[in-house]
């Protein structure tokens, strides 16, 4: 898994029908790079998140074949 922090939302007025309900978020990773991740959880700006990528992210959606390569799977409350 990858740790990052939500940097903002990506607004899209047109999207394919197989993409489920959720938001597209820009996430800044610990190394300073950024990626766009699908967020089914409703995470907010500045929130620390865990991301999974690849076939694991796409396989999360049971009812549809969603073209998702990066998926937010958790919000981090605190680290020790």
What can you see in these coordinates?
- There is one protein chain.
- With 80 residues, the chain is mainly beta.
- It has one domain (2-11, 21-75): EutN/Ccml (OB fold (Dihydrolipoamide Acetyltransferase, E2P)).
- 6% of the residues lie in helices and 42% in strands.
- It contains 1 helix and 5 strands, in the order ββββαβ.
- A 5-stranded antiparallel sheet has the order 3-2-1-4-5.
- β2 and β3 (34-39) form a beta hairpin.
- The protein is globular.
- The protein starts with a strand and ends in a 5-residue tail after the last strand.
- The model has no long low-confidence stretch (mean pLDDT 88).
**What's the CATH first level?**
Mainly Beta
Query: What's the overall geometry?
Result: globular
Q: Mean of the pLDDT scores?
A: 88
CA-CA gap between termini = 17 Å
Question: How would you spell out the order of helices and strands?
Answer: EEEEHE
Major beta sheet, strand line-up: 3-2-1-4-5
Percent helix, as a range, is under 10%
What's the number of helices?
Answer: 1
- Indicate the CATH topology: OB fold (Dihydrolipoamide Acetyltransferase, E2P)
Largest sheet: 5 strands, antiparallel
> What name goes with the CATH superfamily?
EutN/Ccml
Estimate what percentage of residues fall within beta strands: 35-45%
Q: Radius of gyration from the CA trace?
A: 12 Å
Alpha-beta content class: mainly beta
Q: What is the count of β-strands?
A: 5
